Amino acid sequence: MIKVSIDGTEKIDNEIDERWINQQVNRRKDEGIALCVRVSIFENGIDLILSSNSCKSGSANNTEFTIRQNRIIDLWKRNHLNTDVFSGDHVQKSSQFR
């Protein structure tokens, strides 16, 4: 299962589409709201939750990641989702892990 949450509004697997992501991201950016995006991946041996910079997070996890998880984390960073400067396209690219 892959879940995308944008400021608490969630979509799962086939419900996730580029138009919805862009609408959510652009609307909040237009309103000047700090944007929290979380992508949760629970499938094929991956159990990972990635959060954008503006998300309030709990305690840090010192887990050692697998090679596949590290590739996903690298994709997250490459699409600037570890910063406050990203677009809906970056979210879309980072949610297509399959």
Measured as a percent range, the helix fraction is 25-40%
**Low-confidence parts, pLDDT < 50 over ≥5 residues?**
none
**Can you give the mean pLDDT?**
83
Give the strand tally: 4
Radius of gyration: 13 Å
Percent of residues in beta strands?
Answer: 15-25%
Which structural class fits the helix and strand makeup?
alpha+beta
**Main sheet attributes: strand count, strand direction, barrel closure:** 4 strands, antiparallel
Give the number of helices: 3
What is the total domain count? 1
Strand order of the largest sheet: 2-1-3-4
From the N-terminal CA to the C-terminal CA, the straight-line distance is 10 Å
Encode the helix/strand succession as letters: EEHEEHH
What is the 3D shape? globular
Report what the structure shows.
The protein has 98 residues and is an alpha+beta fold. It has one domain (2-94). It has three helices and four strands. Strands 2-1-3-4 form a four-stranded antiparallel β-sheet, covered by helices on one side. A hairpin with a 2-residue loop joins strand 3 (37-43) and strand 4. It is globular.
Short structural description:
This protein is of the alpha+beta class. The chain has one domain (2-94). Helix content is 33%, strand content 22%.
How would you describe this structure in keywords?
globular; single chain; 98 residues; 4 strands; alpha+beta; four-stranded antiparallel beta sheet
